[in-house]
Amino acid sequence: MHLSILKTYLQQSLIFERSFTAMMNPSKYERQYFMPPETSLDWTKKEYITKAPTWCSVDLRDGNQALIIPMSLDEKVEFFKLLVKVGFKEIEVGFPAASETEYTFLRTLIENDLIPDDVTIQVLTQAREHIIKKTFEALKGAKRAIVHVYNSTSVAQREQVFKKSKEEIMKIATDGAKLLKRLADETDGNFLFEYSPESFTGTEIDYALDVCNAVLDVWQPRPDWKVIINLPVTVQLSMPHVYASQIEYMSKHMKYRENVVLSLHPHNDRGCGVADTELALLAGADRVEGTLFGNGERTGNVDIITLALNMYTHGVDPKLDFSNLPELTKVYERLTRMSVYERQPYTGQLVFAAFSGSHQDAIAKGMHWRDEKHPEHWNIPYLPIDPHDVGREYESDVIRINSQSGKGGISYVLEENFGFHIPGKMREDVGYTVKDVSDKRHQELVPRDILKVFKEVYVNIDDPCKLKEVHFVQKDGGIEAEISLEKSGVPKLYHGKGNGRLDAVSNALQRHSDMHYSIVTYQEHALNVGSNSQACAYVGVQEPNGNVTWGSGIHEDIITASVLALISAVNRLDQ
Ligand SMILES: CC(=O)SCCNC(=O)CCNC(=O)[C@H](O)C(C)(C)COP(=O)(O)OP(=O)(O)OC[C@H]1O[C@@H](n2cnc3c(N)ncnc32)[C@H](O)[C@@H]1OP(=O)(O)O
Ligand SMILES: CC(C)C(=O)C(=O)O
Ligand SMILES: [Mg+2]
Questions:
Q1: What is the CA angle 497-499-505, rounded to 5?
Q2: What is the mean pLDDT of the chain?
Q3: Rounded to the nearest whole angstrom, what is the distance from the C-alpha of residue 212 to the centroid of ligand 2?
Q4: Which residue's CA is the closest to the ligand 1 atom numbered 24?
Q5: What is the ipTM for the molecules in this complex?
Q6: What is the pTM assigned to this prediction?
Q7: Closest ligand 1 atom to the C-alpha of 131?
Q8: Ligand with the closest atom to the CA of 233
Q9: In this structure, which ligand is nearest to the CA of 300?
């Protein structure tokens, strides 16, 4: 029996081993990107992005075309309004020639006057005559719009998809550019143009430059009529510094540069969409196309929320409002049927959560330090952004308790949520008690669970001894205490003398038992629970062997609270 289990195990491990080695064959890959013809590394001398770029949301087009079920008309209208609320001034609303919904959506925006005066809509079209014509038809009556035309220029697309020479591909671009110009002249409205050499990152850089310059020669941009050249990372093929160098080269050599808005449109295949964008902005780009939460084809477009908040945490105004990310997330998830990953920067459920003890300790201390010394500055350890700035709560989002947590975090939760100021020396004991519960239950503990554990273990413990009454008289410069207790159901009366009330009670308890201890810590404070104000006391008693046992008492009367704390500690000792 044992032998057959061992055999199966060995067979399975062999299959597992093989499945991990057989598939990987790096020799079948070659780098498919192109370095610019000359070194372009001025961007390396810049440290950070000092000014927000022009943002263009492509959620309703690139994001939408990547959804399992593209948004309905009503959903697109709601999403458009959301983008306007966030503060986008340029919004690519769709690909009007793609479907009836896309077409009708554009007509709905125009006919119902849903486009604010300070917002410019943008529409995408292939560089194909009938598609461009349909696009202009859909734009009738628009006061102002960017018409965005694209064609693929990469080696792979030229060879495999279009089967055309460089000259023929350039002609697709310039023919498209000419048609845009003609139709814009023939149609009422203020039209701006954008051209994308799609698959730019798989295109020889000097060729991409020639194509863009040829389009610019057709359009002849002017200071009062700038055009957008968008250099997309349609597919991410290189490391971010390569893209930055490509952008710097294009920016330096592009004709009419002062009348060109240089735009980025990064995707995220290698997980570097944000890095590509940030470095390319240092390299001279003016504008960024991206989406909320990075939704988009395959691994997505660049996430504008991350870009904007990265800037924000460097002290730069991103000119977009992400102060209520939880609400934004809800609406986004409902409309797109996508879900936001728990670790999505700035947004995910867990991005502010510190479960581990040392992080919690540092955060809790950092919060106190900030309150006392620098309330208007944010540099709390482990929290690069103030959760409040994006609509999150310290209480529920930051310090979360499980078996990895520590005394600092657990005390912080008890203090912030319930007002307990646990003495420094007692914290370790409470910390181990609480995390042990989490470990055994294999569960996170929410604040009310932690309160329950704290109360059950430390507060007003009445087994075996339950306090019935306590009276004090002052005598001979000291205090005499008479305590009525119920021990295991039997009433008992204890007497003792001491320097103070607690001392007298402690002496009384020790006189009538074989317990020996001394009080090493006593602390108390008012505890505001709802409208009632109660007192909370903490007592630590030390046995001759050095062990310290803790108890806590809560009562309206401060003296009774302290006696209850002592009895709790003594009961725990007895238990
Ligand atoms: C990287 C990007 O995100 S680009 C945007 C991609 N988005 C979309 O495609 C979503 C919307 N698209 C659609 O609904 C459809 O593709 C339509 C309506 C635009 C066009 O539909 P169709 O003509 O039926 O199909 P399709 O797009 O496959 O057309 C392929 C043809 O167009 C050519 N083509 C594709 N893109 C372009 C372009 N940008 N410029 C010029 N020609 C192009 C292809 O070479 C091919 O030519 P062929 O007929 O000679 O083989
Ligand atoms: C249409 C273009 C700009 C695009 O979406 C891309 O290249 O990713
Ligand atoms: Mg794209």
A1: 45
A2: 95
A3: 15
A4: 98
A5: 0.97
A6: 0.91
A7: 19
A8: 2
A9: 3
Q: Which atom of ligand 1 is nearest to the CA of 172?
A: 41
Task: Place 23 in a pLDDT band, splitting at 50, 70 and 90.
Answer: confident
253 is in an annotated binding site: no
pLDDT in tens, 310-357: 999 999 999 999 999 999 999 999 999 999 999 999 999 999 999 999
Angle formed by the axes of helices 447-458 and 424-441, nearest 10°: 110
Mean pLDDT calculated for residue range 522-527:
97
Q: Is 185 annotated as a binding residue?
A: no
User: Is there a single domain that holds both residue 167 and residue 280?
Assistant: yes
Atom 41, ligand 1: which residue's CA is nearest?
Answer: 127
Q: Is 568 in the pocket of ligand 2 (CB under 6 A)?
A: no
Domain shared by 88 and 107, yes or no: yes
Residue 17 has pLDDT above 70, yes or no: no
Give the total number of structural domains in the chain: 3
3-state secondary structure of 324: coil
Nearest CA to ligand 1 atom 13: 98
Residue 301 annotated as lining a ligand binding site: yes
Cα–Cα nearest to 166, from 180, 176, 152, 178: 152
Q: How far apart are CA 143 and CA 154, in angstroms?
A: 35
Q: What is the CATH number of the domain that holds 251?
A: 3.20.20.70
Q: Are 301 and 267 in contact (CB under 8 A)?
A: yes
Q: Range of 500's domain?
A: 465-574
Please state the rounded mean pLDDT for residues 542-567: 97
DSSP 376: T
Task: Indicate if ligand 1 lies below 6 Å from the C-beta of 127.
Answer: yes
In short, whether 196's Cβ falls inside 6 Å of ligand 2 is yes
Distance 301 CA to ligand 3 centre (A): 6
Lookup: tokens for 439: 């470990």
- Co-location of 258 and 400 in the same domain: no
**Residue 84 contacts residue 116 (beta carbons within 8 Å):** yes
